[in-house]
UniProtKB/TrEMBL annotation:
Membrane-spanning segments: none
Main location: mitochondrion
GO biological process: glycine decarboxylation via glycine cleavage system; protein lipoylation
NCBIfam families in alphabetical order: gcvH (TIGR00527), PRK01202.1 (NF002270)
Quaternary structure, from the entry: The glycine cleavage system is composed of four proteins: P, T, L and H.
Species of provenance: Brassica carinata (Ethiopian mustard)
InterPro entries xref list: Biotin_lipoyl (IPR000089), GCV_H (IPR002930), GCV_H/Fam206 (IPR033753), GCV_H_sub (IPR017453), Single_hybrid_motif (IPR011053)
Listed name of the protein: Glycine cleavage system H protein
Span of domain Lipoyl-binding: 57-139
Claim: Phosphoprotein is one of the keywords in the record: no
CC annotations in GO: glycine cleavage complex; mitochondrion
Amino acid sequence: MALRMWASSTANALKLSSSASKSHLLPAFSISRCFSSVLEGLKYANSHEWVKHDGSVATIGITDHAQDHLGEVVFVELPEEKSSVSKEKNFGAVESVKATSEILSPISGEVIEVNTKLTDSPGLINSSPYEGGWMIKVKPSNPAELETLMGPKEYTKFCEEEDAAH
């Protein structure tokens, strides 16, 4: 708890909050690494979340690009199972040594599973954003929303343009 409070107060003192930036997951400044992983078979939101749709389940997490810009993740707040998430609405938060950022849901649906490993090991988001660092599994209420998300090539281009603008 003390570490979370220190990280938040330090980020606030240094004015590293991402609320004023175009993307809620990226701090007001960024240093482009240009080597972020973008995986085939996933869909991507312009708010830097990814979705893996498999049958009636969609797994959601934040992208490698987002975790790289956030820095070391020290705390994750996630919703309860059986709660609802709505497209482009906040469902949780990620606290890093740089900033606290809201996580937006790329699709609507019912949360059927939460990655409880992130409570004790939030750094999984940094070390394995697409595997061990997944956040929630959702039963989509409107599968057509998946078609509004970007594919890997579009997301890569989006990130390159966003980084160039900063």
